[in-house]
């Protein structure tokens, strides 16, 4: 594969650095490997607290954003008082972000929805929002949440949110591929503003913003995520047997390997949704379009729009899961920038 030194995607991906000017505070629940937190960082939100039951996940966030305080325990044990104490925020909380476990709603899961213990974590999140009264919240989940049980669960959830919080609610479904990210990944987002926050100007973004927006293709080819990648963190190539290599080599681009159920990337198109599965198994990393092997953690992170300086900790399996379960940081950045503009308007009004 020939490298492209003028790759606009990689320039944009790595234009976001570790140092930013923070304007607002933030609390992160069900944080995973930090996709939402990194997007918040880019958008000027300083995350004071990250929370996840798996230590390797919060270790990753803390290694990349050292200022955060990490909490590891069952989220059902959290209370508003405990969160305030852990985050060390005395006054108003500007934003709470979360992407609770989605397997209860996913087409890849059993779709038990709110009857599943993981579905109840969604209810817990909004109870915490109600108790903490941040100026705004962001909730992310899989599109299956909108259709499971013929849409009844989603309607019930929206009604619960409005009754529990009293917030002004905005909802949408967005695809990462529409924002210059080389991956077809649809997710739903619910944003809420406290009743005293004037939010008539809020609108979900429809495309990427910034200095690169006019240089991005409509559908970013996945091959751009695979260039200039040697010696980067998490670029550890998995060793396959000769049998597996031959099988992978025989799979056409865009095809599926029957042994691993892995899809081979079509290099001129965005990848499919990066899904790394649950502790019980599930999806596997994509097959490289030019080499008979699975994508590395770093290559998968590139598809998700993590910059090259963001390092994933934990076992290899934990690293893949952190990447696969994350909100693409550049998509999170666009949404959180729109939220930040609303909060800035409150400060100058």
TrEMBL record:
It catalyses: a 2'-deoxycytidine in DNA + S-adenosyl-L-methionine = a 5-methyl-2'-deoxycytidine in DNA + S-adenosyl-L-homocysteine + H(+). One of its GO terms (molecular function) is DNA (cytosine-5-)-methyltransferase activity. Its EC number is 2.1.1.37. The active site is at residue 102. Keywords: Methyltransferase, Restriction system, S-adenosyl-L-methionine, Transferase. The keyword S-adenosyl-L-methionine applies. It is an enzyme of class 2 (transferase). It holds the Pfam family DNA_methylase. GO terms for biological process: DNA restriction-modification system; methylation; negative regulation of gene expression via chromosomal CpG island methylation. Belongs to the class I-like SAM-binding methyltransferase superfamily. C5-methyltransferase family. This is Cytosine-specific methyltransferase.
């Amino acid at each position: 594969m020939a490298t492209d030194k003028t790759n606009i995607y990689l320039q944009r991906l790595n234009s976001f650095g570790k140092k930013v000017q923070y304007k607002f505070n933030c609390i992160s629940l069900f944080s995973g490997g930090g996709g939402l937190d990194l997007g918040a960082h880019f958008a000027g939100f300083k995350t004071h607290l990250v929370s996840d039951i798996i230590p390797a996940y919060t270790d990753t966030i803390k290694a990349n954003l050292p200022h955060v305080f990490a909490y590891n325990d069952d989220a059902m044990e959290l209370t508003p008082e405990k969160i305030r104490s852990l985050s060390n925020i005395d006054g108003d909380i500007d934003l709470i972000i979360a992407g609770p476990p989605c397997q209860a709603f996913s087409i890849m899961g059993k779709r038990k929805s709110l009857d599943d213990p993981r579905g109840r974590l969604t209810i817990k999140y909004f109870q915490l929002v109600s108790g903490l009264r941040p100026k705004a919240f962001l909730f992310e989940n899989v599109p299956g949440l909108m259709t499971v049980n013929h849409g009844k669960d989603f309607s019930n959830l929206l009604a619960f949110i409005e009754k529990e919080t009293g917030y002004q609610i905005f909802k949408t479904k967005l695809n990462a591929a529409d924002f210059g990210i080389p991956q077809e990944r649809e997710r739903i987002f619910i944003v809420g503003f406290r009743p005293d926050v004037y939010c008539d100007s809020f609108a979900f973004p429809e495309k990427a913003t910034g200095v690169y927006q006019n240089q991005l293709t409509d559908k970013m080819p996945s091959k751009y995520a695979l260039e200039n990648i040697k010696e980067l963190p998490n670029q550890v190539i998995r060793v396959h047997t000769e049998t597996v290599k031959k099988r992978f080599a025989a799979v056409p681009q865009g095809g599926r390997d029957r042994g691993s159920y892995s899809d081979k990337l079509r290099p001129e198109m965005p990848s499919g949704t990066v899904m790394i599965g649950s502790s019980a198994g599930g999806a596997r990393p994509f097959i490289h379009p030019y080499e008979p092997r699975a994508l590395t953690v770093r290559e998968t992170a590139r598809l998700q729009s993590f910059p090259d300086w963001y390092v994933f900790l934990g076992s290899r399996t934990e690293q893949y899961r952190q990447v696969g379960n994350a909100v693409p940081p550049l998509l999170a950045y666009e949404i959180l920038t729109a939220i930040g503009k609303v909060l800035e308007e409150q400060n100058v009004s």
